[in-house]
Amino acid sequence: MKRPLIRKLEKFTRLSRADKEMLVRIAAQRIRRFAAREDIIHEGEKPEFINLVSEGWACRYKTLEDGRRQIIAFFLPGDLCDLNVFILKEMDHSIGAVTPVVVSEISRAAFDEMMIGHPRITQALWWESLVAAAIQREWTVNLGQRDALERMAHLLCELFIRLEAAGCTSDHSCEFPLTQTELGETLGMSTVHVNRTLQELRASNLIVLKDRTLTIPNLKALQDIALFNPNYLHLDREGSHLDANEE
């Protein structure tokens, strides 16, 4: 079974065997494990590695001085937590584990070697970085313009489709470890409002949430409620002209 990062990058272009071997090699050089709710890196720390989430869920967040937290991104299996982050003097946000996670730490030397020797990977990672920026723009629209029901439905659609792209779904279901508190911290809603909104989606038979599993019986119906257009995820192989001739 393809590793999540390779599977995701091949939504852009088909990689060669040498490309895949390079990705597997650098991902195996330095592996760390974090418990749920543990920080992978704190705001103010100097970043020394690019973090690749191999297993589990993580998030990017900011915390106000009074303790209030805003989650501003989720990292799923196959996601890189910022390319070239090691050029920064210090982190301006924190990255924390939502679930137990396995992270591959990629050094600058290994990253530079890969970028120089594997131009197809370089192009695919540019695409990955542009998609990450597009997701951030969509989250801004979500918070600023959609109502609570649309906002929740949109997030659920996005997470499901991103997990599907990484090979982490089964039929209409996926792991869904987020608490109502974390959903509120993501969507700018109180826990009471989150609960009420989820109940409305359940009552309309649009979602089933049980035992940390999300099931979406009819994804098109949920997308319609969310005013969801998946074009910002750019999953239609826009780099097909770069395809390797070999698998």
TrEMBL record:
<protein>
    <submittedName>
        <fullName>Crp/Fnr family transcriptional regulator</fullName>
    </submittedName>
</protein>
<feature type="domain" description="HTH crp-type">
    <location>
        <begin position="146"/>
        <end position="220"/>
    </location>
</feature>
<dbReference type="InterPro" id="IPR012318">
    <property type="entry name" value="HTH_CRP"/>
</dbReference>
<keyword id="KW-0804">Transcription</keyword>
<dbReference type="InterPro" id="IPR000595">
    <property type="entry name" value="cNMP-bd_dom"/>
</dbReference>
<dbReference type="InterPro" id="IPR014710">
    <property type="entry name" value="RmlC-like_jellyroll"/>
</dbReference>
<dbReference type="InterPro" id="IPR036388">
    <property type="entry name" value="WH-like_DNA-bd_sf"/>
</dbReference>
<dbReference type="Pfam" id="PF13545">
    <property type="entry name" value="HTH_Crp_2"/>
</dbReference>
<keyword id="KW-0238">DNA-binding</keyword>
<dbReference type="InterPro" id="IPR050397">
    <property type="entry name" value="Env_Response_Regulators"/>
</dbReference>
<dbReference type="InterPro" id="IPR018490">
    <property type="entry name" value="cNMP-bd_dom_sf"/>
</dbReference>
<keyword id="KW-0805">Transcription regulation</keyword>
<feature type="domain" description="Cyclic nucleotide-binding">
    <location>
        <begin position="5"/>
        <end position="115"/>
    </location>
</feature>
<dbReference type="Pfam" id="PF00027">
    <property type="entry name" value="cNMP_binding"/>
</dbReference>
<dbReference type="InterPro" id="IPR036390">
    <property type="entry name" value="WH_DNA-bd_sf"/>
</dbReference>
